[in-house]
Specification:
The chain is of the alpha/beta class. The protein has 10 helices and 16 strands. Strands 2-7-6-5-3-4 form a 6-stranded mixed sheet, sandwiched between helices. A two-stranded antiparallel ribbon has the order 1-16. A two-stranded antiparallel ribbon has the order 8-11.
Length: 421
């Protein structure tokens, strides 16, 4: 992994990775996983559907990112116990697509549970039934209607018998944390101000000021409970947006973390294959995962800011998308200092402690094998720069690796570029 200095903020990054987030676009950031719409009126899958399903599984496999893998807990091969205690309602009702144009018009949906079973894993059905009985559907987050509720059973709802059965079933637990979002509607910066139903009367899931990409109190309580009862815990972040994952460093029981952004109707088959070691993960992060998103300069500029003197330009009520609204704006004041460019420059200049601030950097992604990379000389010809990179797999498992090339232009170029933005 490149050091923070090698990936300095003023460097323009180019990652040659087949990332699901890049393949499907920024609109693919979640949605109600089970709003069923007819993809076709034909009962049998066409040959084209089958080919597309195969392609989507390949894209999902190469787009998922192994963020953490302490003690080589993954893969869980056939030679070991393939039982998993699967926690979190996202296992049964994951996020498979985005709102609006990021939606998935599906014939069927492979859940996390089904994807793991298809890969040969045995799961605790009692846990699955427990989540379905608590709530069988996922609240709808769509372009024009949003219920942001996360239907997570409070920790006190897990009986002692349920936990003991799960522990006897496996010493490995997996927790799925899912987040929806997408086109037309911003993710809540303060969940207490949107439509949300708490899971308990004893506390607020999201107290005032808590945002959508941090754990709810109910999720935090469940995480605490699982880590108290299992030595090996795997976290799956099922969100195309970078959640706050600082909590992974608070529990020694958390051994592995996978980023599984909304992978479509077939993608969770790919998750099962990665966990089983049938496929070696090769995805890289296309964003920076941090401990506190509210500390990023961009956070203060999120939202819709409405003009106060534009009433004469109010959009007609007949408009199906934004009828009756007054023009609004977002003020982009951070310039180039977004993502890794901010965090690595801020670290260089002593504004932040990089290790305490960044959990997983841009371009990060682990493998089940080990690679060596050797960069050749940079050659300039007719104003074109070229370079060869030799990648050698020095491990015992076949795999793919991404060559990431970062270019630091002269400062005068950056000034010219800034003047043209």
């Amino acid at each position: 992994m490149l050091s923070k200095y090698q990936r300095g903020l003023l460097k323009i990054g180019m990652s040659l990775t087949l990332s699901l987030s890049l393949l499907l676009g920024s609109a693919v950031t979640g949605m109600d996983a089970f709003t069923v719409k007819a993809a076709t009126d034909k009962k049998e899958e066409s040959e084209r559907e089958k080919r597309n399903a195969q392609l989507s599984r390949k894209a999902a496999t190469q787009g998922m990112v192994l963020l953490e893998n302490k003690d080589n807990v993954l893969p869980i091969s056939a030679s070991t116990d393939k039982n998993i205690a699967l926690f979190g309602p996202g296992a049964e009702r994951p996020i498979k697509g985005g709102t609006g144009s990021g939606d998935v018009n599906q014939r069927y949906v492979i859940s996390v549970t089904k994807g793991l079973e298809n890969a040969g894993f045995a799961l605790n059905n009692t846990l699955s039934d427990f989540y379905i009985e608590y709530r069988s559907d996922r609240p709808s987050v769509e372009m024009f209607e949003q219920d942001w509720t996360l239907p997570e059973p409070p920790a006190e709802n897990y009986s002692e018998e349920l936990l003991e059965e799960a522990k006897e079933f496996s010493d490995t637990a997996m927790i799925v944390f899912s987040r929806s979002g997408g086109e037309h509607i911003d993710l809540p910066q303060d969940v207490s101000q949107v439509s949300y139903t708490n899971n308990s009367d004893a506390y607020e899931d999201f107290p005032q000021g808590a945002h959508w990409l941090e754990l709810s109190q109910t999720e935090r309580n469940m995480l605490e409970m699982v880590c108290e009862n299992f030595d090996n815990v795997i976290i799956v972040s099922n969100s195309a947006n970078a959640m706050e994952l600082g909590f992974v460093n608070e529990y020694e029981q958390i051994k592995s973390v996978l980023w599984c952004p909304s992978p479509g109707q077939n993608g969770f088959n790919s998750l099962g294959r990665i966990l089983a070691g049938d496929v070696n993960p090769s995805g890289k992060t296309t964003d920076t995962f941090v401990t506190d998103l509210t500390a990023a300069p961009t956070f203060r500029n999120f939202g819709n800011f409405t003009y106060e003197n534009m009433d004469e330009f109010t959009i007609d009520e007949s408009d199906p998308f934004v009828g009756g609204t007054v023009p609004h704006f977002v003020n982009y004041v951070e310039g180039i200092y977004v993502g890794y460019r901010f965090y690595e420059t801020a670290s260089e200049e002593g504004l932040i402690d990089y290790e305490d601030t960044v959990v997983y950097p841009f371009g990060h992604g682990l493998s089940y094998t080990t690679f060596e990379q050797e960069m050749g000389d940079i050659i300039e010809a007719d104003g074109v720069l070229s370079v060869d990179v030799t990648i050698t797999n020095i491990g015992n498992v076949a795999g793919k690796e991404v060559a990431e090339l970062y270019y630091n232009p002269p400062l005068i170029q950056m000034v010219v570029l800034k003047n043209h933005l």
